[in-house]
Amino acid sequence: MNFTLSELTDLQFKKISNIVYRECGINLQSGKEALVRARLTKRLRVLKIEGFKEYVKYLESHNGGKELGLLVDVMTTNKTSFFREVAHFDFLCEKILPKLTKKRMRFWSAACSSGEEPFSLAMLLLENIPNIRSKDIKILATDISPTILGKARKAVYQEGAFQDLPTGFLRKYFVEIQNGGSRAYQVSNDVRRMVRIAKLNLMESWPVKGPFNVIFCRNVMIYFDRLTQEKLVNRFWELLEPGGYLFVGHSEGLSGVKHKFQYVQPATYVR
User: Fold this and answer.
1) Is 132 in contact with 126 (CB distance < 8 Å)?
2) Is 39 a residue of the active site?
3) Which domains does the chain possess?
4) Overall pTM surpassing 0.85 (yes/no)
5) Which residues are bridge partners to 262 per DSSP?
6) Annotated catalytic, 143?
7) Choosing from 84, 143, 192, 271, which is the catalytic residue?
8) Which of these is catalytic: 39, 43, 164, 190?
9) pLDDT tens digits for 226-244?
């Protein structure tokens, strides 16, 4: 079956964009047509559907519920790495952790992708919190994509994933394994047991209990419109303890969004 990228009409693009926005808040604006065509052509091949008109009908049908999740999967970008935007981890280590003296500590990686962010956080806590075994520390890691969460749960990464890992961390916090004949590394049990991985759609209700000391929501809001960003940021405000911190991506400053947070440094805010 042959698919051509010209099969997606303006009306079909608009319908798919509306569905994606409704499901996960991602705002597929005009100019994203080529991206949508390229990514969804793969789904059409898998489903053996002849064109985008039929695909839209399938999404809107009684049987299209599972496909909605897979649509979101292919429309979301899951680019991440260990200790990405390291200035946030430096600030956490130098300015926040020394002030967290209570036994209970709660952290949330609100768009955890394949797990590098929450595992980086866990490693940092293990390195910097004295007597950590006597503390009540939990890291919640959530994402909308079941596929990418499956990768986070496996916690297996190829050799090229560690370019920003601090010296000695690979030996200390990973176990070398064989993965399909190639060398790979799995996050150690000490790190993994600190992280609870769960599916969560940021646009829906949150079965999440605060208060949190720190929330990471980085490189996600760039895909949302301003109204969606504003609602999300204010929901984070409600779940943070007074003096708690919100980290967003460095391309996602909150200058255009109404919020109650105090600016601390680029992409770093405090309640």
Assistant:
1) yes
2) yes
3) 5-75 (1.10.155.10), 86-270 (3.40.50.150)
4) yes
5) 270
6) yes
7) 143
8) 39
9) 999 999 999 999 999 999 9
